[in-house]
Amino acid sequence: MSNAKVYVNGEFAGEWPYGYASFYIDATKFIKFGEKNLIAVRLDNKEKSSRWYTGAGLYRNVRLVYKNPVHIVKNSLFVTTGQIGNNAAVVRVKLELSKPEGAAKVEHKILDNLGNVAAFKELSNPVEPAQINLPNPKLWDTKTPNLYTLQTSVFDGSGNLLDRLDTRFGVRSLKFSRDGGFELNGNKTKIQGVCMHHDLGPIGAATNVRALKRQLGILKQMGCNAIRTSHNPPSPELLDLCDEMGFLVQDEAFDEWRYAKCENGYNKIFDKWAEKDLSAFVRRDRNHPCVFMWSIGNEVNDQHYADGAATARFLKSIVYREDGTRPVTSGLNSLEAAFTKSKLAQELDIVGVNYQTKLYREYADKYPNMIFHGSETASTISSRGAYYFPVKRAVDPFRGDYQASSYDLETASWGQTPDEEFAALDSNPSFLGEFVWTGFDYLGEPSPYNPGTPARSSFFGIVDLAGMKKDRFYLYQACWNPDVKVLHVLPHWNWPDRLGQCVPVHCYTNYDKVELFVNGKSMGVRARNAGRDGYNGRYRLVWDDVVYQPGEIKVVALDKDNKALQEKTVKTSGVPSKLRLTADRDKFDADPKELIFVQIDVLDKDGNFCPRANSFMFVEVNGAGKLRALCNADPTDQTGFSSNYMKSFNGKLLAVIEPSNTPGEITVEAYGMSLVPSKIKLSTGAPEK
Ligand code: GAL
Q: How far is residue 175's CA from residue 468's CA, in Å, rounded to a whole number?
């Protein structure tokens, strides 16, 4: 990241300016075989090149690849699948060889997920496209993401192996239509997606598979089934995980085309590099079953200019040339300009609508043959565990403490609350679904508190910068994940400053009816889909007139005969007195890449969570690991992530631990003034091969 220039033994060997692109350089002619060689990469990430935090330096994997002169050209192999009859698939493979005349035979083996050979094909003409019948294919979908590996081997005339390449793929069908929506393997699937930037909060932008896996795991619990890689090519590791964990991916290439958003943004290199970037991107990612749409752009300013349609056509032709099995989309934030000024929208297979819920109906009616989806929705803002009064729908609030309210009613001026978006989609069923802005908070873009304020990271996340769930998580989970019975109540019940005043209580649930009790006294039953106006009794249940008294609030989910099904209590806590440390899993590899995420909760002496505790503490890590980062997810906290002290934010702090290579015991200890020191012991073992 970015403007990479590669030098081998002091000689310029190649360059690639786009910091998100994967690229390779043939270093053969610069290498001194049998001697020591020096490879250097110069990076120059200019200021004013991005609207969010990009990271810098070598932030994705770099590899030296040693090949026979006769080899499969990088990213030339393309595997596609089709169905034949009910219980067989045809797998088509094409590839390019660097020196086809040097090869005599190509062999393709299809291995199932246990490594057994499921199909086999041998070709004596090595560049001939292959068609392989795969009997009884196990389909890839978001619940059971079955994968196959195509193992391709190239031999010379004497049977010597020249190259071997493993390519993972899945058998699945995609269908998009105006009436049928999106169908995955013939099953109608609503897109319940989130947009994600690439940074990993406190550990920065460098790819870490464990941290990505943790993010996806949390989103999966929520019922999220799709990721939009806003607004740039993701790391290949993210796509591998989406293949394995069952997420659909809208793979996005650009945030800018010819017209600038940032002074040093992609517009500067579009004319020279767009073709190379887009084709390299599609060729790199096209074998991933998770990728289901290509997005050629996000809110590009070209939508306002006459040449916008021609640029879209040019980009679409590149995608079609390299793939042709998936539709092309782009996120538009001005439907009016994109349909009438530039006519860029008409070039798209699927129109991506960013926000503009009020226009969903009008444009769907006006363009009855076009397919639409909410490529970017909500932009609701909140700070985990922070609540403000009076509770009301608000746009771009500006508070002295630079926070946003977790009642989930505050948005950017162009945004919607989650409930408003659910309602818009429910009344426009031809829309394929949505990608919420954003799944996780990210570094940069602290709207509405932009430059000149202490805020340095976003408020948009459903999950905060440390990976801790905000209230909103449960609002989405209640609508998106039918496998989980959700009963979540907010706010917390520590309001000594509001004695006798009103503290509205909201419940995010997928139960039909819920009764609220305050210190044992019923505040009434609320039913879902009661269709109330304002902030909407449809998707959340609201008790507006609750008067605060310390004690407890309890929500009880009821069936139609008013029998209790589940209950949840939130108690007023006492002063912070001790800490609870919890690791994100219970088996740990002695591998520095296998980060361990330890959540620290501040508790009172009786073990109740202290929801307003901003307790200063130190974190000490000893033994077979070290402290990598701390993060409280307070968007305004400027303490360095790599320090060993930080305040908790609304009762919580995250410690990221990096195990060493040697198996052993790691002790993580947290302590602070008036807090009983607390520790957790973690044992790492040798990683399984
Ligand atoms: C959108 C934009 C995103 C982000 C978001 C914040 O318009 O596409 O990148 O800036 O607004 O609400």
A: 35
Q: How many angstroms is it from 221 CA to the middle of ligand 1? A: 25
* Residue 521 clears pLDDT 80, i.e. is over it: yes
Sheet holding 11-16, edge to edge: 11-16, 4-8, 39-42
**C-alpha of residue 267 to centroid of ligand 1, in Å:** 18
How far, in Å, from the CA of 430 to the mean position of ligand 1?
Answer: 24
Residues contacting ligand 1 via CB (< 6 Å): 51, 230-231, 298-299, 333, 354, 376, 379, 412, 437, 445, 447
pLDDT of residue 212: 98
Could you read off the pLDDT of 341-353 as tens digits, one per residue?
999 999 999 999 9
From the CA of 231, give the closest atom in ligand 1: 9
Secondary structure letter of residue 100 according to DSSP: G
Q: Hey, whose CA ends up nearest to atom 11 of ligand 1?
A: 379
Q: How much helix, strand and coil, in percent to the nearest 5, is found in the chain?
A: 15, 35, 50
491 cis-preceded (ω within 30 degrees of 0):
yes
508 CA to middle of ligand 1, Å? Answer: 26
Is position 410 annotated as part of the catalytic site? no
Q: Which of 257, 357, 334 is nearest to 302 (CA)?
A: 257
Distances (CA, A) of 365 to 341, 372, 431, 544, 610: 19, 11, 12, 37, 51
Give, using CA atoms, the residue closest to atom 4 of ligand 1.
437
Torsion-angle region of 280 (φ positive above 0: left; ψ -120 to 50: alpha; else: beta)? alpha
Q: Measured in angstroms, how far is the CA atom of residue 403 from the centroid of ligand 1?
A: 19
Interval 86-134: pLDDT, tens: 789 999 999 999 999 999 999 999 999 999 999 999 999 988 999 999 9
**Which residue matches tokens 């302590």?**
671
Mean pLDDT on 175-185: 96
Q: Whose CA is nearest to atom 6 of ligand 1?
A: 379
User: CA 568 to CA 485: how far, in whole Å?
Assistant: 12
Residue 431 bridge partners (DSSP):
none
Burial (Cβ within 10 Å: 0-12, 13-18, ≥19) of residue 235: buried
In the prediction, which pLDDT does 537 show?
A: 74
> How do residues 432-484 score in pLDDT, each as one tens digit?
999 999 999 999 999 999 888 999 999 999 999 999 999 999 999 999 999 99
pLDDT at 450: 83
Determine which residue's CA is closest to atom 12 belonging to ligand 1. 379
What is the DSSP-derived secondary structure letter of residue 429?
A: T
Which candidate in 256, 299, 594, 658 is catalytic? 299
Residues 90, 88: Cα–Cα separation, whole Å: 7
- Gap between the Cα atoms of 573 and 551, Å rounded: 9
Task: Give the Å distance between the CA of 501 and the centre of ligand 1.
Answer: 37
Percent of the chain with pLDDT over 70: 99
Q: Which of 252, 322, 376, 420 is catalytic?
A: 376
Query: Hey, which of 194, 395, 437, 462 would you mutate to test ligand 1's pocket, going by the most ligand atoms within 8 Å of its Cβ?
Result: 437
299 as an active site residue: the answer is yes
Q: How far apart are CA 605 and CA 418, in angstroms?
A: 37
Which are the contacts of 234, defined by CB distance < 8 A and separation ≥ 6?
20, 198, 249, 251
> 300, 333, 356, 376: which to mutate for ligand 1, most atoms within 8 A of CB?
376
Report how far residue 177's alpha carbon sits from residue 573's, in angstroms, rounded to the nearest whole number: 53
Pocket test for ligand 1, best of 50, 257, 416, 445 (most atoms within 8 A of CB): 445
The model's pTM is: 0.98
Q: Which of 243, 220, 349 is nearest to 294 (CA)?
A: 349
Give pLDDT tens digits for 201-245: 999 999 999 999 999 999 999 999 999 999 999 999 999 999 999
